[in-house]
Write a structure and sequence with these properties.
single chain; 688 residues; alpha+beta; 54% helix; globular
Length: 688
């Protein structure tokens, strides 16, 4: 038995990773050994003298790379949530090695011949719907991976995949390092005017932590570009010059500095375009969308055009109202981008008589988390138990075991990693360390994690989060529950392994409950008194729900157009990244660009899985709005509705096409007007 913990079958509960045994020097040897074992497993499949069948080919392939998936799964997850120079240097080595092995498999003529033999007689086989999906998707993977190309084109495809395996992590590392290179130290207390106590306390705590190593921070306040620090500053700080300084630093991440991402962007776009053309597609968007619900770039653009028709006039009205408010009531000569969040917060306070900060004391993270678990317990009959018998990758991480409340059956393992730290990627995400499905001939339960960057606790108060952060928690827990409640056989179609424009439905739909009193009562409790959010404050939150919905919607549409532009144009036409972005977002931008381009830190499409797919957030919002209308009709925690959703959507993963799953749940296709109806942007007429 190897002493490398990445290659061992863990003896921890649910075979969870042995984080405390893993060191950086384990990764490369584990990957090399796991590849050798996987290669041997694939060779056995190829050399099997028996006629190819689903079991001896497709099912065997499902488990062939088990150890490799275990090792790389831990590595890439730690790269995102821990980071650091050493892991990023390893990524530059591990990425190409894994990419070349993947190319070896997907370009293997003998393996493809066996898969094709099963695929060609699929109609004669007695396969389940899930097995048919696995077969069809595997066949498409080989074809789309270049299995039918000639030798020279296969070699070029291999080179492209190898290059892309390092460019994404490089983009992510540049954006993170650029952000970390900026900090704003305030030593004059008057410059804190307007900021809520929570932001001031957090900045003081951050400076005090640094002062332990560098006395120059002592007695000062430290602000960074981490979301919990940046957002309150631009939202509340009265000092306009400092708001501008923060805003410009944020928009200039990885732009015209030592971490500039321009060349990474041009290379990523060019390689993806070349790959698509090698495989016979018009462009990368055409290649990607073949396996999305939208299917074609034209369908995406039509969808974005429809949204723009509703959002743009609403956003223009939002901006006009904001400008008039800032001028008439605050004497501002000209509204700039760094003023928008600040005056929007003041206008919201005037219109609805509350501030976002009014909610924060009611949302200590521990109470929100326990209430969130109670919400999912009421909805899906789950029991969450804090677990102390797992190894953790950081002292801030918590672990939980989930069980079915009625039967007591084990559901899976959940980790929560909630606070920012140096090296950790911005934002929030859900991931799987071990997907649900077949391992060594046995169907196992999943090991899931949610990773966030919430407001940290300080010396005198617990972590108090905003309502927006509550939405984020419910969103990521929606993804997590999708992974945890999966009940399929094969990992390749389990949990969140669904078409990309369907994956956000289970996450986004959960945000709807965060505006309902019944749910807010579960997650709230004043950190000093335990008091629930007063009913009148909840009503104000509900009334303000669609405040500046046009502005927010147009922003998402803007990103969707930019994404599609990058992945449909001739890459040779992309010169200056800022100029390119300006040209392709001019019809959805209501301000001239006064800082760096969003592209330079647009990790979703350049370092994540959303290239040619950013539209899917809005696409899935249509599905989630339509879904939640049913819960509003039947009851927020109606058992029959929740059971149907659990059975037809959450448990099925990607075992059938999303349109089939959704129809099985809802009894019909989603109403395309549901989203605009929820946002009060439809009026009495159907959207054009």
């Amino acid at each position: 038995m190897t002493d490398n913990p990445l290659l061992q079958i863990s003896t921890l509960p649910n075979h969870a990773p042995q984080f405390e045994e893993i060191d950086n020097h384990h990764y490369m040897p584990a990957v090399e050994e796991a590849i050798a074992q996987a290669r041997e497993n694939y060779n056995k499949i190829k050399s099997n003298p028996d006629e190819p069948t689903f079991e001896n080919t497709l099912e065997a392939m499902e488990s062939a790379g088990e150890l490799l998936g275990q090792a790389t799964g831990v590595f890439y997850n730690q790269l995102s949530c821990m980071g650091g120079d050493e892991l990023h240097e390893l990524a530059e080595t591990i990425g190409p090695v894994c990419s070349n092995f993947s190319s070896d498999i997907i370009l293997d003529e003998e393996l493809f011949a066996r898969v094709k033999a099963v695929y060609d007689k699929r109609d004669e086989l007695d396969l389940t719907a899930e097995q048919m999906t696995v077969l069809e998707e595997s066949y498409k993977d080989f074809v789309r991976g270049g299995a039918m190309l000639d030798k020279d084109k296969k070699q070029r495809l291999r080179e492209i995949n190898e290059a892309l395996s390092t460019l994404g992590p490089s983009f992510m590392n540049n954006a993170k390092k650029s952000a970390e290179s900026f900090e704003m130290i305030i030593d004059d207390e008057t410059n804190l005017a307007g900021l809520p106590d929570s932001a001031i306390s957090a900045a003081k705590h951050a400076a005090d932590e640094r002062a332990e190593e560098d006395e120059s921070y002592k007695g000062k306040w430290l602000f960074t570009l981490d979301y919990p620090s940046y957002i309150p500053f631009v939202q509340y700080a009265d000092n306009r010059d400092l708001r501008e300084k923060m805003w410009r630093a944020f928009t200039n991440r990885a732009w015209e500095d030592e971490y500039d991402n321009s060349e990474n962007i041009r290379s990523i776009v060019a390689f993806k375009d070349e790959r698509a053309k090698l495989l016979g597609y018009k462009n990368h968007a055409d290649y990607v969308l073949e396996r999305r619900m939208a299917q074609k770039p034209e369908e995406v653009l039509s969808f974005l055009d429809k949204l723009k028709a509703a959002y743009k006039p609403a956003a223009e009205e939002d901006l006009k109202r904001l400008k008039e408010f800032a001028t008439n009531e605050h004497g501002l000569d000209e509204l700039k981008p760094w003023d928008v969040a600040y005056y929007a917060e003041k206008l919201k306070h005037k219109l609805f008589d509350f501030s976002s900060e009014d909610l924060r004391p009611y949302f200590p993270l521990d109470k929100v988390l326990s209430g969130c678990f109670e919400h999912f317990s009421k909805l899906f009959g789950l029991e969450f138990k804090k677990a102390d018998n797992y190894q953790l990758w950081h002292k801030d991480v918590q672990a939980f075991d989930l069980y079915e409340k009625d039967s007591g059956d084990f559901v899976g393992t959940l980790y929560g990693d909630f606070f920012p730290r140096k090296g950790k990627k911005d934002g929030a995400w859900m991931t799987a360390y071990r997907g649900q499905g077949l391992y060594n001939g046995k169907v196992e339960r999943p090991v899931i994690a949610i990773v966030c960057n919430f407001t940290k606790p300080t010396s005198d108060r617990p972590s108090l989060i905003t309502h927006g952060e509550v939405l984020t928690l419910f969103h990521e827990m929606g993804h997590a529950i999708h992974g945890l409640l999966s009940k399929v056989t094969y990992r390749s179609v389990s949990g969140t392994s669904v078409l990309w424009d369907f994956v956000e439905l289970p996450s986004q739909v959960q945000e709807n409950w965060c505006y309902e009193k019944e749910t807010l009562d579960l997650v709230s409790g004043h950190y000093e008194t335990g008091e629930k959010i007063p009913e009148e404050l909840i009503e104000k939150v509900r009334k303000a729900k669609n405040f500046m919905a046009g502005w927010g919607g147009l922003r998402q549409v803007n990103f969707g157009y930019l994404d599609i532009a990058y992945h449909t144009v001739d890459p040779n036409s992309i010169g200056d990244i800022g100029d390119f972005e300006d040209e392709h977002t001019k019809d959805t931008s209501l301000f001239p660009r006064l800082g760096g381009p969003f592209s330079s830190s647009f990790a979703h499409i350049f370092a994540g899985g959303y290239s040619a797919g950013y539209y899917s957030y809005k696409w899935a919002e249509v599905l989630d709005a339509d879904t939640f209308e049913l819960f509003l009709e039947k009851g927020l925690y109606d058992t029959a509705t929740a059971d149907a959703y659990k059975e037809h959507i959450l448990s099925k993963g990607g075992s059938q096409h999303p349109s089939i799953l959704y129809r099985n749940f809802r009894g019909r296709d989603a109403d395309p007007d549901a989203l605009l109806r929820r946002e009060d942007l439809l009026g009495d007429k159907k959207a054009a």
